[in-house]
Structure formats: C-alpha cells, structure tokens
Write a structure and sequence with these properties.
- This protein is an alpha+beta fold and 226 residues long.
- It has a domain at 13-31 and 73-181: TATA-Binding Protein.
- Helices cover 21% and strands 24% of the residues.
- It has helices spanning 13-27, 38-43, 52-61, 171-180, 186-192; strands spanning 33-34, 70-71, 78-85, 92-97, 103-110, 131-137, 140-145, 149-155, 158-164, 182-183.
- The strands form 2 sheets. The chain has an 8-stranded antiparallel beta sheet with strand order 1-3-4-5-9-8-7-6, sandwiched between helices.
- A hairpin with a 3-residue loop joins strand 7 and strand 8 (149-155).
- The protein is globular.
C-alpha cells in the first residue's frame, strides 16, 4: 500500500503577521543586520565557528534547538538580528528587512499533526481576513489573504513558513525566499544565534547613549552619542 504524504496544515500566521512585523520595526532602531547566507556567514569571520556544543548551548539559551534554526537568502534583504527569537515551545522566528522597509518573516514550528488542507480549520483564515488564494506551488503551499501572504512547507514534524505583506513583498520575492530557506549550518548558527551569555531572546544592541547606572534611560544630553 502506497503511503500518501500528509496535507500541510497552514498555521494562521497571517493573522499575527502584522504584530510580528510591527515588533521587528520597533526593534529596527539600532538593529544589527546580516545577510544570513552561507557565503556571508563564512566571509564574516576568517576563523572557524564555535564548536557544536557551544552552538547548542546558545540555542538552548534562546529556548530553541539548533535543528530548528533556519535561515534564508533573498536579494536586497538582510536578517534583523534583534528579531531572532523562540516561537512556541522551541520553534524559531526571524525577520529579514530591506532598505525600503520591506519585511519577510521566517517561522519554524514543531507541528506533529499537520493534517488539514487549504479549505478547513486554521488555513481558512478568519472572518475579518479570509483566505483569497490557497494553492500548491511546487513542494510548498501558497496562501494569501487581503492583508498578507505566505509560503509553507513541512519538514518532518516542523512547518517552515515564509510570509510578508503584498504591499512590501511580491509573490515572486516571497517564493524565492521560501525556496532558499534551509537549516542553518555552523557558520550561520554563529551569526544568527544570540551570543553566549546574552539576552536569550535577542542580541544586545550596542548604544552609546545609555548611562552605566540608573534605569537605563537614554542620555539625551549634549554630547551623548546616538
């Protein structure tokens, strides 16, 4: 008996996309960026990446695991490192930004029971933002509402979703990012994961206007650096 692949359950990521991208935009002030590609990750350092044990410890500090850290590459977009964080229990999420303000969200979630199609359940969107397009596109599902669109694919018990708003990211660009999405290698893990001892949710931002004592409010006095 030939086994049939399980239909992919498309999570209602479009309904939460605006909030996620809004948070990324807020974090954009002073955010470090990196392209997230293998070539860029390797060129960023002439030295070998940390050993696997350190990378796994850094992933654990961020409440995820290295096997859930995916990256992508798309022309004109760079990873906003402050957007990197855990999704759900041990998933992974990040946002890639373009100079013109365009944003692409990458999400990796553990979903062991992905058994719905495009017409029922969460894949149908919401009453306020119903799905207008949902179709198979190669190895992935493409879904669009009036407010956002996404590509999603299943890898074992994980669902990898790349999404954005139609005004900022066209379908061709989104498809390119979705097809380029891949499990991070050790060099990319070193670039993407928060550093050892850092805030588990994001990389720290180096600011010259934060006083060394007090409540951490910016020092806006004359001579303070931005």
């Amino acid at each position: 008996m030939t086994s049939r692949p399980r239909p992919l359950r498309l999570r209602p990521v479009l309904t939460t996309l605006a909030l996620a991208l809004g948070l990324a935009a807020v974090a954009g002030c002073g955010t470090e960026v990196a392209t997230g590609t293998r070539a860029a990750a390797r060129s960023a350092s002439a030295t070998p990446p940390p050993d696997r044990a350190e990378l796994e410890a850094r992933a654990a500090a961020a409440q995820t695991v290295t096997e859930h850290v995916w990256v992508t590459e798309v022309r004109g977009y760079a990873l906003a490192r402050q957007s990197v964080g855990v999704i759900g229990d041990d998933g992974f999420g990040s946002v890639y930004t373009a100079p013109d303000g365009g944003q692409i969200q990458l999400r990796v979630e553990r979903l062991p029971h992905a058994d719905a199609d495009c017409t029922d359940g969460p894949a149908s969107g919401s009453a306020q933002d119903p799905v207008v397009t949902c179709e198979r596109d190669g190895e992935q599902w493409y879904r669009a509402t009036e407010s956002g669109h996404a590509y999603a694919r299943e890898r074992g018990d994980l669902v990898v979703t790349v999404s954005g708003t139609p005004e900022e990211v066209d379908r061709a660009t989104l498809r390119s990012a979705a097809r380029a999405a891949h499990l991070a290698d050790d060099h990319e893990l070193d670039q993407v994961l928060p550093p050892a001892g850092g805030d588990p949710g994001r990389r720290p931002v180096e600011r010259g206007d934060l006083p060394p004592v007090g409540d951490g409010a910016p020092d806006n006095g004359v001579g303070a650096s931005g």
